[in-house]
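Sanity check

After download, print the first record. It should look like this:
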Amino acid sequence: MRSKYKRVLLKLSGESLMGHQGHGIDSERLGEYARQIAEIVQQGVEVAIVIGGGNIFRGLQGAAKGFDRIKGDQMGMLATTINSLALSSALEAIGQPAKVFTAINMFPIGEHYSYRRAIEALESGIVAIMAGGTGNPFFTTDTGSALRGIEVSADVMLKGTRIDGVYTADPEKDPTATKFSEITYAEVLNRGLKVMDLTATALCKENGLPIVVFDMDTPGNLAKVIAGEPIGTLVY
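Expected structure tokens:
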């Protein structure tokens, strides 16, 4: 199968790692993700990954419960690191080399992130998993993904979610919601659609990084997106 993209930034949500168990990390879901990722690396695609931490802890939710916002966000950064280590372990278990880079120095848990070192890993066929968001509070992992995607010169950001694209409203709540096959960044911002947070969307818009939102939970979908099949929504 011919790949449409040479280098991608794959953004995964922490919640999706919960699978059917409703908390933590579902080893079955993790293994499925690892197999999909390894499959596209074998096709010659360079894969950088950012994972959220919502299955373990969310800074904003913590702040709502009385946590200091900065400490809450730092706890969220650690949650993304736990997920990143789990994914790197799952990839290595099936023979796909992976390396965890952390936004804040956490040696020996991961290598302190530098875009040059991440690109070196990508060019060597190693999956580069970037943990810890941007390393700063008040920024989401969406913004972290946009930043890392731009830094490593990714062709596209692939946002893998449990929903198969961008809709006029939340399809899980509104049965009349209709799906966009493509939509501009400006329209996303004007309509207030929850594709990513405002900072991340603006960052992608300013730097011309297209986003494809697709359903990652259906096995085989990642390879289809890489092949250019129109199964999700293109934001450009």
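If your output differs, re-run the checksum step. Summary of this record's structure: The radius of gyration is 17 Å.
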